[in-house]
């Protein structure tokens, strides 16, 4: 297959976990692919107010109804069945009307692989973008590593990995899972980290020694994300210790959003903890720039310990010092740009927040360390080359001379 021919090489990306416009990793991947000459179509769930199909820039986006009758196992089964059925219909329609050469499936969940297998039988290529470890997610939510559902999740993960012509891992821990549990040959697995796009973060606000000190959170609000621990830390700071000079803004939404709002009210945090819900990228930038500290409250568990969180990358890109629990891959990302609370205790998290709130010079110093790590090692430009390398390898095409080379990490 020639990269430069009568038509562009075409890629189809399937996201089940959320809308394309809110998935920064996939948006960065699409930008890189389109910059290299690919034509990209995306399938994702439809959020209220979105059209069923439209173009987002040069990207063709197709949306389907996502049905999930509440939480629990039954709700997830209904949701995944709906996604598999309607997403599969869109994939067939795109295959007939637009065509594609490679399909990239983004987990969670791991049950979308039948779509990839079907199109592989028709001669298409399949790349698995490994966002989450679903067996560890189950273990984290249900506190067990046994039973029928756990075995099904392990089986689905193996199928998603083993059928893939190439696997994109978000960090070295995930790459090792693909090698060990998925049995994927090393040449088929490459690390494409969740680095921020410096086009969105060309500059950063100068730190200001002001009161109150604002602590920010950006991300999903699901049970495994630990936002409840941040609210409990806020209660310890504001109510137990009477520290009215520290306030909190929580950006994002998820399954736990109503319960978290209720918890904040019950703890008497009205006015000191503000929920924005899902907001535009411009509003996110404005809110984060006004923060003094970025918090990652994800607790220690089998999933979080080996996962790389997008939120800390955005904090560091804006030169914000980070407070988090002592998670393995978070330490790899942040190094000295973060203070690490032991265990998963909200009071320990609160202590580190107070430590930074009371020391402006340390906040400033750690923020600059984080920004340098983004610029020198972690920015998305360092992930573009491995992403394109995997696509070219899977498609069996030569890398075109027009594709710009990323600077090597210093």
Describe this structure in words.
The chain is of the alpha/beta class. The protein folds into two domains: 10-195 and 380-395, Glycogen Phosphorylase B (Rossmann fold), CATH 3.40.50.2000; 213-377, Glycogen Phosphorylase B (Rossmann fold). The chain has 14 helices and 14 strands. The chain has helices spanning 24-35, 72-97, 113-121, 134-142, 148-162, 172-180, 227-240, 257-266, 281-289, 310-317, 328-334, 346-357, 360-378, 381-395; strands spanning 10-15, 39-45, 53-56, 59-64, 102-106, 125-130, 166-169, 189-191, 213-218, 246-251, 273-277, 293-296, 322-325, 338-341. Strands 3-4-2-1-5-6-7-8 form an eight-stranded mixed β-sheet, sandwiched between helices. Helix 3 links the parallel strand 5 (102-106) and strand 6. It is globular. It starts with 9 loop residues before the first strand and ends in a 15-residue tail after the last helix. Residues 1-5 and 404-410 have low confidence and may be disordered.
What are the defining features of this structure?
Rossmann fold; alpha/beta; disordered N terminus; 14 helices; disordered C terminus; globular; 410 residues
Summary of the model, kept short:
With 410 residues, the chain is of the alpha/beta class. The protein is built from 14 helices and 14 strands.
CATH names the topology of the largest domain as: Rossmann fold
* Helix-and-strand structural type: alpha/beta
Globular, elongated, flat, extended or rod-shaped: what is the shape? globular
Number of helices: 14
Helical fraction: 40-55%
Share in β-strands: 15-25%
Architecture of the largest domain in CATH?
Answer: 3-Layer(aba) Sandwich
* Number of strand elements: 14
Using the coordinates above, name the CATH class of the largest domain.
Alpha Beta
Give the overall pLDDT as a whole number. Answer: 92
Task: Output the strand order for the largest sheet.
Answer: 3-4-2-1-5-6-7-8
Mind describing the biggest β-sheet?
8 strands, mixed
Please state the CA-atom Rg, rounded to the nearest Å.
21 Å
State the fourth-level CATH superfamily of the largest domain: Glycogen Phosphorylase B
Unreliable residue runs: 1-5, 404-410
The total number of structural domains is 2
> Which sequence of SSEs, written as H and E, runs from N to C?
EHEEEHEHEHHEHEEHEHEHEHEHEHHH
